[in-house]
Design a protein that fits this description.
The chain is mostly helical. Among the domains are: 85 residues, no CATH class; 122 residues, no CATH class. The protein contains nine helices and three strands; from the N terminus they run H-E-E-E-H-H-H-H-H-H-H-H. The chain has a three-stranded antiparallel β-sheet with strand order 2-1-3. The chain is flat and about 90 Å long. The protein starts with a helix and ends with a helix. About 3% of the residues have low confidence.
């Protein structure tokens, strides 16, 4: 009993010594910084309250004056004005290094150019405000792409996959438009609803409901069904549509991958490395398993374990 008591006292004493040494080291470091003038200046947020004054169409209010960005600083974006005494804008966030850099150095796979995204969103907002879409199948897809891209920017601006997702949305929208044109040339589109005609109200209402529910991939599915599978010649129905759907849903899979990482971050990561707490996704985009669960399930499938 005496040995156990003595052991506990020694452990407590060692723990106290470690805490004292840690506190002394921290105090000495702070005193050294203050003495040599190397203490970091306070971090400001240059865009707070300026979004209405400047030509800014995305939320960069959390951008920092010290040029840091990404997961180590609560997923802050990069500023769209010069910061830290620089003369040039550094709008590119390198998510690997956590630093903002110039736009001409934003070709890396872990980089997001917020200046480029701001210009893109400006065009989207102008299009949606002016309703400058043709009143046909192609106008529906163009409008859906703009709404989809706007949603990606609003929901994914803190994720390095945002740029990839936006490219996928634009590419697959154009691919679907090309498929529709090719099918029309072969006489394999809806005989009662031509691509260049104004669609009926029932179809437009369905589109509106899907977009209101933020189900932009669902619009792709509805367009495929309406124009390529309804009222078409029988030989055209023999063609494979699952492959087409898989292609136009590539962005959905990438969003789910990002959501999986975000969910893992919120559940187990340090608070400064988690995504915003108000991050919510519709069910059709949400990841229903963690990355660890997905990896485990894949291993079980390969091994034939139920």
């Amino acid at each position: 009993m005496q040995k156990q008591s003595l052991k506990k006292e020694l452990n407590a004493l060692n723990k106290l010594k470690m805490e004292i040494a840690k506190a002394q080291k921290k105090a000495a470091k702070a005193a050294s910084k203050e003495q040599h003038g190397s203490k970091r200046p306070p971090v400001n947020h240059p865009h707070k309250g300026r979004n209405l004054v400047m030509d800014i169409h995305i939320d960069v209010s959390r951008a920092r004056s010290d040029g840091r960005c990404g997961k180590n600083v609560e997923w802050a974006p990069c500023a769209l004005v010069p910061t830290g005494g620089r003369t040039e804008v550094t709008p590119c966030c390198n998510f690997q290094s956590g630093r903002c850099g110039p736009a001409d150095q934003c070709e890396c796979p872990h980089c997001v150019d917020y200046q480029l995204i701001n210009r893109l969103v400006k065009g989207i907002d102008q299009n949606t405000a002016s309703r400058s879409y043709s009143s046909d199948a192609f106008g529906i897809l163009d409008q859906n792409a703009d709404l989809y891209l706007r949603w990606v920017v609003d929901k994914m601006s803190a994720h390095r996959l945002m740029d990839k997702i936006m490219r996928m949305v634009k590419t697959q929208t154009e691919n679907l438009k090309m498929v529709l044109k090719n099918k029309e040339e072969r006489g394999c589109t809806n005989e009662n609803s031509k691509l260049n005609d104004t669609p009926g109200n029932i179809f437009l209402n369905k589109i509106g409901k899907l977009q209101a529910a933020e189900d932009f991939p669902g619009v792709f599915d509805l367009v495929i069904k309406h124009y390529l599978q309804m009222n078409v010649p029988v030989p055209c129905l023999d063609e494979e549509f699952d492959q087409l759907r898989n292609r136009v849903h590539k962005a959905t899979g990438t969003i789910k991958k990002a959501a999986m990482k975000i969910t893992d971050s919120q559940e187990g990561g340090k608070s400064r490395k988690t995504f915003p707490a108000d991050f919510n996704l519709p069910d059709h985009f949400a990841a229903h398993e963690s990355r660890r669960e997905r990896k485990t399930n894949k291993i079980k499938q390969r091994l034939g374990i139920a």
